Amino acid sequence: MFGGEADHNGWGAYELSNGEIVSVAEYLPDPTTIGWMTRWYHTSADGELLTEKDIFGFGFAYPRKLLMLSDQRFLIAGSSARISDARNRPYLTEVNAEGEEQWKYMYEYLGVDSSTNPLGEALDVDRMPDGGYLVTAFVTQAFPLSRSITLIRTDEVGNPVWVQPNMGLGLVDRGRSAVDNEGNIYSFISSFKWPGTPHWLTLQKRTAQGDLIWEKDFAYLIPDLRVTDFILNHANELVVVGNFASGAHANQAVILQYSPEGNFLRERLLEVDGWPSTNISSVIQTQDRGYLFVGALSDPINNQFPFPPMDMWIRKTHPQWGLEWEKIFGIGANNMDVLHSVVESRAGGAIACGTSTFFWEAIGNEVVLLKVGPDGDTLGIAAPYAELDWQIFPNPAQEIAYLWARDGEEWLTGDAPVTILVYDMLGREIFLPTQVQNGKLALDVSRIAAGIYTVRLSVQGRVIGQAKVLKQN
User: How crowded is residue 416: how many other Cβ atoms within 10 Å of its Cβ?
Assistant: First the structure.
């Protein structure tokens, strides 16, 4: 975990050929005097911080997407502002593995009237097959109030080749684009006419020159779905992920798949036992043609104060979305922990990047890096509570919950100098009797109310594991 002296949000990470990891985050050094900034982290394969560097852009800058071009070349898309006017504009920069800027470009008015006081940020960036890049950006105009998506085709150093402005309806809240091998551009846009009205989904296909081929609206087929990410899979089919904002499936994540012509193929809700709310942030397709999904889980029905705590969530599926493995990580009993991005590791596992927000200590948000093996085993988590090897069984439990944990190479038994802390869904510490049965640590959960509890295990004051247990009556 990185940060601590200021608010940090992790937005992307990649593994280098030597196993080391680079990542990018936004951070707020001082909310009273300065805007959001960009920080670059370079860590060892085990998550140990090697170097860090601030990236200033044109004065202030914050990231939204990280794209790896090679071991020494990375693109960061986001927003930057000059200190003189503090107006955010879409921004693209190339950095090396040490976070040193090679070139940068700020996109000014993007085809809209400058008198409307436009602001903006780059949300996404992708490679074009014949060279250069495609940037997908927000543009907000104050007079009259509107927010739209703009596509920017650039050359190899960020100079605009063409600009396609004013995409979307009313107020856009999400926009993502992907490019196929022939240079055709697919854009998925989530918008609404006014705050509080249902979301309107638009899918467009354009040529490499930006000319519209076709456009389809899905508002009546998928009411109030907020698209968070979409990709083209190996067959050039569109895989869309998002979260329902209202209706029968409110607070649940969904996967949708469309043909290259925009025709609906299939869908599936992403449900996790014991978690009413599944929030999905990002999706990628893996080399075996399965999928990796990341996001967060929460229980807004039973826990509302101050906000529903959230646990990081990563799921690996087969090509037809059947579950292969799933991991849930909680950094703190009352944290809002979420994974924002994921890439496949060179060993066939996953490298995920996200944020942990702790409400009860004045440390703000911090960056979390997660490394998972091909079979879903945890290889490392750069966070204060490192979940090395941890199980609670049975889970759900009714009478006794056994703890099976390892500190390094040593399995912990009832003779180990361990401390077990248990928290309810409001973050309150509760006392549970502990036992030793057949050399295993055990918790007596028979007298507590049904619900989800956080169990934290420490050895001589050092927290080595944390997990959830579902108590059933």
Answer: 14
What is the CA angle 131-167-82, rounded to 5? 70
CA-to-CA distance for 208 and 193, rounded, in angstroms? 29
Beta strand spans in 320-446 (E)? 323-329, 336-344, 350-357, 365-372, 378-382, 390-393, 400-407, 410-411, 418-423, 429-430, 434-437, 440-444
For residue 393, CA distances in Å to 141, 201, 311, 323, 403 come to 54, 43, 19, 20, 7
User: What is the Cα–Cα distance from 276 to 300, expressed in whole angstroms?
Assistant: 7
Residues in the chain: 473
Structure tokens at 125: 């960036």
3-state secondary structure of 78: strand
For residues 308 and 334, the answer to whether their CB atoms sit within 8 Å is no
pTM exceeds 0.85 for this model: no
Structure tokens that stand for 31 in this block: 């909310």
Neighbours of 122 (CB within 10 A): 28
Closest among 431, 432, 422 to 467, alpha carbons compared: 422
pLDDT block averages, 10 residues each, the chain of length 473: 58 94 82 70 85 84 93 93 79 94 87 69 94 92 77 96 84 88 93 70 93 83 76 95 79 91 92 88 96 89 61 93 88 71 93 75 65 80 46 80 59 58 76 68 85 72 64 83
Question: Where does residue 198 rank: exposed (0-12), middle (13-18), buried (19+ CB within 10 A)?
Answer: middle
The H or E element spanning position 453 is strand 451-459
| Closest residue by Cα to residue 105 from 91, 121, 85 | 91
- Collapse the DSSP code of 465 into the 3-class scheme (helix H, G, I; strand E, B; otherwise coil) and give the result: strand
* Short-list 68, 66, 63, 21, CA closest to 39: 63
User: What does the block give as tokens for 395?
Assistant: 């889970």
Amino acid at 296: A
- Identify the residue whose tokens are 């200021």: 6
Going by their DSSP bridges, the two strands 119-127 and 49-55 should be labelled as unpaired
Per-residue CA distances from 151 to 97, 109, 138, 229 (Å): 27, 12, 9, 16
Rounded distance between C-alpha atoms, residue 221 and residue 36, angstroms: 38
Residues sharing a CB contact under 8 Å with residue 391, sequence separation 6 or more, in sequence order: 403, 404, 405, 467
- Pairing, β 7-15 against β 89-95: unpaired
Q: Measure the CA–CA gap between 451 and 313, rounded to whole angstroms.
A: 19
